[in-house]
Design a protein that fits this description.
GO terms for molecular function: S-adenosylmethionine-dependent methyltransferase activity. Keywords: Methyltransferase, Transferase. Pfam families: Methyltransf_11. This is SAM-dependent methyltransferase. About 35% of the residues are buried. Strand 5, helix 5 and strand 6 form a beta-alpha-beta unit. With about 250 residues, the protein is an alpha/beta fold. Helix 1 packs parallel to helix 8. It has an 8-stranded mixed sheet, with helices on both faces. It has 9 helices and 8 strands. The N and C termini lie far apart (about 65 Å).
Length: about 250
């Protein structure tokens, strides 16, 4: 028996969206993963590091999955619900989770870390990253690329301008402007599929920049149209973009 629009939306509206764990979407939405395997590459770099910083750790999910951390590993997070979750996951492994604001500066001295990592940062504080890196140190990050899931944004908000602040060459230029050498930069476009309207509600509540100001009440008409479309035509297809950047501070 198919669930109704109201049932799907009510369920998705009531579930917690704290942290950065998307397991609630299992069986309801799928997203291809980049071929480079960020978690695997992170493990390799972390095992070789002596002092590492994870910027915008979210709920600590990614860092907690690394089997061997650097002897000194620190994480930062600014959103209070994520801060509590990250501390619970990472403190038992000896990782200090430090609260930061939404603007620079990072609360660390110059040249403290030989590795700084970040998965899907909202903003990359290039000057601060360069400052806290040791000479010869590395910044390693997987980031949201240009016009990611733009099909979703345009379904709810209409056509969007073609430009994007998340362009790869802008990231390269920003890194080089603070004296870092970009040694790896690549991007992929990945299929993202939503199988029911509840999955979309959950996603938009969690990833708040896709449709800024999203609430079910505000977009109920569009959500009902999406539900009807999925019932008639099948799952809603969008494309996520991700890019990998690795930059090194000259020795």
């Amino acid at each position: 028996m198919k669930r109704t629009f109201e049932e799907l939306v009510a369920e998705a509206e009531s579930v917690s969206v704290d942290g950065w764990d998307f397991s609630w979407l299992d069986g309801r939405a799928t997203e291809e993963r980049p071929s480079w395997g960020y978690a695997r590459l992170l493990e390799t770099r972390m095992a070789q590091a002596k002092a590492a910083l994870d910027v915008e750790t979210g709920g600590g999910e990614v860092l907690a999955g690394v089997p061997r951390l650097a002897p000194l590993t620190v994480a930062t997070e600014s959103w209070p619900p994520n801060l509590a979750r990250a501390s619970g996951r990472l403190n038992p492994r000896g990782v200090a989770v430090v609260s930061t604001g939404d603007e620079p500066r990072l609360p660390f001295g110059d040249g403290v870390f030989d590795l700084v990592v970040s998965r899907h940062p909202v903003t990359t504080w290039w000057e601060e990253i360069a400052r806290v890196l040791q000479p010869g140190g590395t910044y390693f990050s997987q980031q949201v690329g240009p016009r990611t899931v733009v099909e979703v944004t345009e379904f709810f908000m209409g056509p969007q301008p073609p430009g994007s602040a998340r362009d790869l060459e802008l990231a390269r230029a920003a890194a080089e402007a603070v004296g870092l050498e970009v040694v790896d930069l690549r991007m992929e476009s990945l299929r993202t599929v939503f199988h029911d309207v509840g999955a979309m509600v959950y996603f938009l509540r969690k990833v708040i920049w896709i449709v800024p100001g999203f609430t079910v009440d505000r977009y109920r008409t569009e959500l009902k149209a999406l539900h009807d479309r999925i019932q008639t035509d099948g799952p809603f297809l969008a494309h996520t973009t991700r890019f990998l950047i690795e930059a090194r501070k000259p020795a």
